[in-house]
Specification:
This protein has helices at residues 2-24, 31-60, 72-87, 108-133, 257-265, 269-273, 304-307; strands at 135-139, 154-158, 164-165, 172-173, 184-188, 197-198, 201-202, 207-214, 219-223, 226-229, 232-233, 281-285, 290-294, 310-311, 315-324. By secondary structure, the protein is of the alpha+beta class. It has 2 domains: 2-133; 137-328, Umud Fragment, subunit A, CATH 2.10.109. The two termini are 26 Å apart.
Length: 333
């Protein structure tokens, strides 16, 4: 979302730049040109409003995709608003206030446009910086983290605790802490293939939330639903929830660990072994700079057991606090 806000902020900045350029060239002395530039502003504003509105609607219905800037549906919806904005001055409802503002020497309707453009530029760029570096709003889309986080919880994600990613790189700076076992993390689903199918659908670009169980280099295994770290049971997990009374049995045909590791790193465990990996999984070795994550709702979570490790570069942050609904306001446990 932060990339989207930054881009629309830059578009508003370009509009402001050309407005000042045309002002210096005295282009707005001609009413016909002023009306044309007003149409450009209305089309731009319509596109921005339509685009962000569709993004909000998609997010509300769980279609939260962060890998692509704009989907076809969002583009078509935004273009509809842009067309309405472009043609609005052609309607009888448009009566421009062509009086010249004494301070700016601009027609008053262009002065109003410029003020709105300045507001768009400042608000969107500032919001994108805050969301990129510090906070991100996030909605829990499924029950995989019950009862720590439940469907519909709205929360803010602390994005600077694990470091701020340098734009257009995978490097992070200013780390406050390293990722530790037991941390709840929000991350971009680790897939570079938009058509890859996991967890009942295409997850490319979506944000997930899970709990870190395995750290880089550790040997991870599940035995009857209990995680083992380097051959030792993880111990009491107060946050873990098991809903099914019976555990899934082990595969009757044993597979070599090397093959299991290869399949798991290729994110194919769920496809090869189906639900058999839910309770009896591995052993595998967590790759360098990667983590093994599980949902707290162990019997209802599609997680690292099925689709592999989470690279450190994909981790965005950790939940800071729940702000909605009112009955759930507080810190995640």
């Amino acid at each position: 979302m932060e990339e989207k806000l930054f881009v629309v902020g830059i578009i508003s900045g370009i509009y402001l730049f050309f407005t000042e350029h045309f002002k210096d060239k005295k282009k707005f002395d001609t009413l016909s040109f002023a009306v044309l530039w007003h149409r450009v502003f209305l089309a731009m504003a319509g596109f921005i409003v339509g685009f962000l509105l569709m993004v909000i609607i998609d997010n509300r219905f769980g279609e939260i995709v962060t890998a692509s800037f704009i989907t076809l549906k969002q583009f078509m919806f935004a273009m509809l608003f842009a067309v309405i904005g472009w043609f609005y001055p052609k309607t009888p409802f448009f009566v421009p206030d062509a009086k010249i503002d004494e301070k700016t020497k601009l027609p008053k309707f262009i002065k109003t446009d410029r003020e709105w453009g300045d507001t768009f530029f400042t608000a969107f760029v500032l919001a994108s910086i805050v969301m990129y570096c510090f906070l991100q709003a996030f909605k829990i889309p499924s029950g995989s983290m019950r009862n720590t986080l439940i469907e519909g919880d709205h929360l803010f994600v602390n994005k600077f605790i694990y470091g701020i990613r340098i734009p257009f790189t995978q490097k992070k700076v200013l780390k406050i802490k390293e990722v530790k076992r037991g941390d709840i993390v929000v991350f971009r689903f680790p897939s570079d293939d938009p058509d890859e199918f996991h967890c009942g659908g295409k997850q490319y670009g979506k944000d997930f939330v899970k709990r870190v169980i395995g750290l880089p280099g550790e040997k991870i295994e599940m035995r009857n639903g209990i995680p083992f770290i380097n051959g030792v049971a993880i111990g009491v997990e107060k946050y873990a929830q098991y809903l099914d009374g019976k555990r899934m049995p082990e595969l009757t045909d044993k597979v070599e660990q090397k093959i299991v590791q290869e399949i798991w790193e290729k994110r194919q465990s769920g496809k090869y072994f189906s639900d058999y990996v839910r309770d009896n999984f591995g052993p595998i070795i967590v790759p360098p700079n990667s983590y093994f994550v599980l949902g707290d709702n162990r019997d209802r979570s599609c997680d690292s057991r099925y689709w592999g490790p989470v690279p450190e570069k994909e981790i965005k942050g950790t939940p800071l606090f729940i702000y909605w609904p009112p009955s759930r306001i507080g810190l995640p446990k």
